[in-house]
Amino acid sequence: MPEERRIALSYLGRVEPGSIDDYIAAGGYAALKAALARQPDELVAELSASGLRGRGGAGFPTGRKERSTAQACEECDCYVVCNADEGEPGTFKDRVIMEGEPHVLVEGMIIAAYAIGAGAGYIYIRGEYSRSIELVGKAIADARQGGFLGKNLLGSGYSFDIELRRGAGSYLCGEELTLLESLEGKRGYPRIKPPFPAEVGYRGTPTLVSNVETFANLPFIAERGAEAYLALGTPSSPGTKIFCLSGDVEKPGFVEVEFGTSLRSLVEDFAGGVRGGGRPLAVLLGGAAGTFVPGEDLDLPMDFDGLRKLGLTLGSGAVMVLGPRRSLSAMISSMMDFFRHESCGKCIPCRVGTHRLARAAARLVETPKAERKMLLGSMVAEARLMASTSLCPLGQSPVLPLESAFARLQDSL
Ligand SMILES: Cc1cc2nc3c(=O)[nH]c(=O)nc-3n(C[C@H](O)[C@H](O)[C@H](O)COP(=O)(O)O)c2cc1C
Ligand code: SF4
Which of 227, 331, 386, 388 is deepest in the core (most CB within 10 A)? Predict the structure, then answer.
């Protein structure tokens, strides 16, 4: 059985969550000191060399984003924004980080900010996460008090501070450009991409937007170097990943393991297998904007590119198990309802398309089994059309679970 390997969660259970004294005693903020002793461009090079990929869902190389933001920052003020909105169904890893040891996020953000030359940062946090809000707020205040944030931090000559902002329950506001609109106090409508946040972000200035788990990996890289990071995981997805294990399993929860760990191991070893025994009907990877894997295909290495080659998604790390007695059609119906509810209505293909898909999915549940395949096929065609004409990635998401169910699970409808 593969072992857990903790980086983002390395302090979990070892310290009193939110206690800066415990965090420092356990080795916290040593990475920041090491980072401040280096030139910012050296640090960007180290972070790029580590191959770290964003943990918010898309797996985009973080170093590449930092490099382009740093270049744009040379000419104007710029910002670092942490995406802590965590709205993807089945995903709760950022909450575990923030409630387990919020200082690792604060430290990671300061390191990223120093590397790119940002003067201010924001954490946009899911409004329902009251405990996370409390702990992250306290961690920011204690870090400021301890000289790790604010003017001339740790006597380095560098100044940076962080402000906490609460989201208001919109899934779409987790999308980075929509998040920036909301952060600016505007309605959560998406912006057209490009330009990307690295060019035109918060208040029109270059902004690095990264996920909580992404930032929580930075102290390790800054302190131990890219080589140590590359020694973990797979060549194209180095390091570790927190997976959220939920659904019909014996032991729902979370686990941080090296990339490349098999899906079977996550389901059978870490989640204890299907509740009540038997083989899963399917596993949904990556949440509502994710893909279904049939229960007989669990021998898949969990890394970004390996899954992508198979037309699957790793996404945010959600692993939702459907037991043998679940109805796949009912699951699809609930997912289409979710998209209908979360569509912002700005563009017609998604505003109308999500309603039509939700109605069709409700019919799928009631349709005789023999006719479900045909109905799902027509839903896939509609979702493809919607994906190619919608304004933002939300409208491009329903096609993912629908296509994967159509390709691999027609007989389980
Ligand atoms: C509809 C939608 C919702 C999203 N929600 C989140 C979220 O809750 N948290 C997150 O980190 N990224 C979310 N993302 C991805 C962000 O747009 C962005 O890619 C991410 O914050 C970049 O961080 P990373 O490079 O560290 O992954 C969402 C994307 C879409 C399209
Ligand atoms: S695709 Fe959907 S969520 Fe995105 S802008 Fe259009 S209506 Fe809004």
Answer: 386
